[in-house]
Amino acid sequence: MNAEEFKSYAHDSIKNYANSLLQGSAKKPADILREATDDFTSLLPYGINTTGHNLNVIVDAKSQERLGIVWYAIEPRESCHVLFIYDIDVVTNQRRKGIATRIINDLMAKITHPSILHVELSVFIHNKVAINLYKKLGFSPIEISALTMTMRKPIL
Prior knowledge:
It holds the Pfam family Acetyltransf_1. It is built from 4 helices and 6 strands, in the order ααβββαβαββ.
């Protein structure tokens, strides 16, 4: 991802995150947008140059058409590391074509470090389509809040 792509991605990602935070919230939209912006910039303070974070544009090999974006990082846990997927955003007209499945499977296939034992992600509770996809791919809930579910899949 280059700087121009990141600028567009950041704008859309913050807006989408704020919209998800608004569901079931009594806070004012402006406060939610500020919270979403703060959360995003705290995770990526240096944008695409934030150490340890990977933001990749997914492109069709044949047509060079943009299919989506994946953002992930390798994060330490108590006794191991996990590959944490922060975001998978498939272009609207490319959804339900197996692209998210391929992204996750490709990420898992590339894991070679022996201390990475799991892939984790967090999904909004209202996003039933994503939850069902992740369950189908072998992810199980490990933490559930009123707003989100954290899911994990072991590396086999």
